[in-house]
Amino acid sequence: MSETPTFQEIVFKLKQYWSDRGCIIQEPFDVEVGAGTSCPETFLRALGPMPYRTAYVQPSRRPADGRYGDNPNRLYKHMQLQVLLKPTPPDVIEQYMGSLEAIGIDLRKHDLKLEEDNWENPSLGAWGVGWQVMLDGLEITQFTYFQQCGGIDLELVPAEITYGLERLTAFLQGVDSVYDIEWTRGVKYRDVRHADELQYSVYNFELADVPTLWKLFEIHEAEARRLLDLYKDYTEKQRFPLLAAYDHVLKCSNLFNTLDARGAISVTERVGVIGRIRKQAVGVAESWVDQAGTLGLSRVLPEEQPA
Amino acid sequence: MNLLLEIGAEEIPDWMLAGALDYLATAVGNLLKAHRLGEASIRTDATPRRLVVRAEGLIAQQPDSEERIWGPGKSAPPAAVAGFAKKQGLEPDQLEILSDGKVEKYSCVRKIAGRSASVILADALPDLVLKSPFPKSMYWVASNAPGKSPVRFIRPIRRIVALLDDKVIPFEIAGVPSGNESSGHRKLGAARFPVTYENYEQKLRENFVILSAKEREARIRAVSTKYKCDNDLLRTLVNLTEWPTPITGTFDPEFLELPKEVLTMVMRHHQKYFSVETPDGNLAPKFVAVTNTDGDPDGLIRHGNERVLRARFNDARFFWEADQKKKLADRVQDLANVTFQAKLGSYLAKTERIEELVLNLMLYTANSGKPLTEVDIRNAKVRYTFGPDKPEFHVVRAARLLKADLTTELVKEFTDLQGVIGGLYARAQGEPEDVAVAIYDHYKPVSMEDSIPGTQAGQLLSIADRLDTLRGCFKVGLIPSGSKDPFALRRAAQGVVKILVEGKLRLPIQSLCEGSMQLEEFLAERIRHYFREIRGFKYDEVNAVLSSGWDDLLDLEERLEAVRDVRPTEDFEPLAASFKRIRNILKQAQFEGLGDTLDESLLELGPETELYEKFTATRAACKMLSDYRAKLEQIAALRPHVDQFFDRIMVNAPNPAVRQNRLTLLHTMLAEFSTIADFSEIVTNSALHQEEMPKELIK
């Protein structure tokens, strides 16, 4: 390759690559999530009979993984490039490998392995089977065939491809610390992101007020529940704001993760709180499928896009 | 003819290949047998992307066969007979009348033309393939028919090669038609190329796929760096690669300051690298990675792997240093927030129970397993309170710190190193060496092959930890049933048995079950298992000594060895048979014998007094002997006298007092010698006769 791509160039190239393969290029979802999977573009679109293809960058918050900006490999917030292909094209792995070559990795000169790694998100009632993709010993991608979302068997099994953008870029740029990644020429990842790593670590581990977080959790949980109860008897189903209900579920999920990082959730409580979030997530998923049904959506396979 | 079946799937998890191949070999074998397609020899192979069955020597056409069809009875009305004949395409007079073994019936023979192997296989293979029992499977395409559940397999099937010699066996699985095209290595080979039965393996090789697992293993082994071969890891790597090539990388020797255990764990479990040792057994700053490529001429792959390992090691160092900021001793209280089990409380509660228990175990050991008095325990606690740092109490100190590493970052990252990391931290934080070693070892033995902890403190801790888990779980009803054993209680119990016996510890293990009959039975079963399966004793000998008590396993082991040694001598088995006879007689007579004393004046001169005298002499002799072998030899020598007694004396004497006295004699003998083993448990050749014996009481 002529010049090592910068962080943002890698993002551009991957977006272009998947755009060329018929994906809608979305922008990041505007409610805090722990992973691109949780965004409605994946969690809700995976449900039901409608085909869908999308790709987007999702900043993903994992409060417990924060390290005050000190650790070269761990981040409170990292960037995922999330691709959802529903239904899964038969050459999905070849397409994925093509995306690596598109960002300048000559796979004939590198060692690529697909090692079993199944994925599960108990608070969303979602799971799938798949692999972690290892490139020269580095895990660069999670590849998952979704089987269930919100406790519902999926009609069209989607493939979800999640690239860890920092790791991938560090690999390509040959740097040992994510903070040394070149974001764009002359600007390092550190310059852009170090402050939020430090500040959120301080907040999540030291200053977050536990009673307030619990209060917020309960408010969002109650609002999600209230909406889901309303949906049952709501006559004009198509108008009903299930997406708003889902926002509140995601708020709960992030508050739970923050409380967890703060050490405020005992192991015994954990299962119970996860169950509370799952209950609302499952409620949204079920209503979503019902709502799609009332819209008379049927299974239409997309036209194959020329590669 | 020769069959080639290749199921081309996306990467199958390495640990599932062996089971899938076992199934396919059996299923294809059964299929060929059931359809009489000849005695084919079957071989199976797999790479991550294909499951392959080859069968040699099929016959092309199933032989024709005949089937007898039974119609209506001989006396059926003509219309019924005509109807039957018509259905078979015959005239009524072409039917025979034969007996089906019970009644006479109209009957005919139908000829069944043999079908071709190709048709049979095309019919049967899709189902056979989809029935492969994977521990976890997935669906990937919607079902064609509404309401029909979609097909499942371990990973999506993308190609199928199905050939009889060079002809395709036509069928389809999940929309994928069978054909003659295989696929090579994802990057080095062609995506599609035709194969025949004959050239299959060669074509794969040309496309950078080595079909034979043995050959892939040989390629992995052929690296000049002498690495520490870990067979599990080797098998994993063989099953993760189609064209394995090992490469050697290095890491900065300054990481060798980190514990070897942590470095090895990172290399083996996180990175699937082999670690390398120096000639003197230390860790060398090198590793061997196995790539799925044909080489690394520019060193790019090596460089990438080295960088990943450096990051991993940096992480470990980061955790190690962060963990040192809070000593284990200061972490103990934090265990209050770590749940051991919902009904059994936190790890702090468990720690406190283990401290108490290990103090008792320590006293028992010092006391050769004899019962402890309240005073013993109280005195020990007082001594402990005033001198907790004394070496004798190091084991209690270790118990206090035992689980504290659960709160460290390193253990959160490397859960399998729990205990080991605690031990390393204890040493780094200046705890006494025996405390560190005891913590380090307390998960041993992790399997029946693993060694037990190397020090007595480690052994006592390991027992106390497991015993606490066992007692707690049994108390709250978490008892393993069948294959369900989520808390690995069987392994815990098995470890206790192994440590007690191999560590030569005298602890009253039965008494330590706190009266839980279920736990006692559970432990007894593990004791049986240990002595039978691990130590190779005969099951009846194990049962015999177990019946005489198992509170002290060292004593049990001595008795067991004695029984094994004395068993081949000529008197032993007949005597064992006689004991069984005695037991049956007493049982038949419902003789309790408690409180009865023998009245010597009622003994009949001759065999009865002789037996009695011999018995009292033997009993006296046994009291003088400490060795069970010698005791058993003494007891075995009673045999002619016992035989004489049974030949000549009727136990069921008319005089009730005499009868009672004889039963008392037998009972006393039985009770006396059953402290070594219950000889009636020994299975003897003459055992058959014994069942009739009690009859003599009814004479």
Walk me through the structure.
The complex is a heterodimer of chains A (307) and B (699). In chain A, 42% of the residues lie in helices and 21% in strands. Chain A has 307 residues and is α+β, with helices and mostly antiparallel strands. Chain A folds into two domains: 7-203, Bira Bifunctional Protein, Domain 2 (BirA Bifunctional Protein, domain 2), CATH 3.30.930.10; 208-294, Methane Monooxygenase Hydroxylase, Chain G, domain 1 (Up-down Bundle). In chain A, helix 6 packs antiparallel against helix 7 (242-261) and helix 6 (210-233) packs parallel to helix 8. The longest helix of chain A is centred in the last third of the chain and has 28 residues, at 267-294. The relative contact order of chain A is 0.16. The model of chain A is unreliable at 299-307 (pLDDT under 50). Chain B has 699 residues and is of the alpha+beta class. In chain B, helix 22 packs antiparallel against helix 24 (639-648). Chain B has 26 helices and 17 strands.
Throw out a few tags for this protein:
heterodimer; A: 307 residues; alpha+beta; BirA Bifunctional Protein, domain 2; Methane Monooxygenase Hydroxylase, Chain G, domain 1; 8 helices; globular; disordered C terminus; B: 699 residues; seven-stranded mixed β-sheet; 26 helices; 17 strands; 13% strand; flat
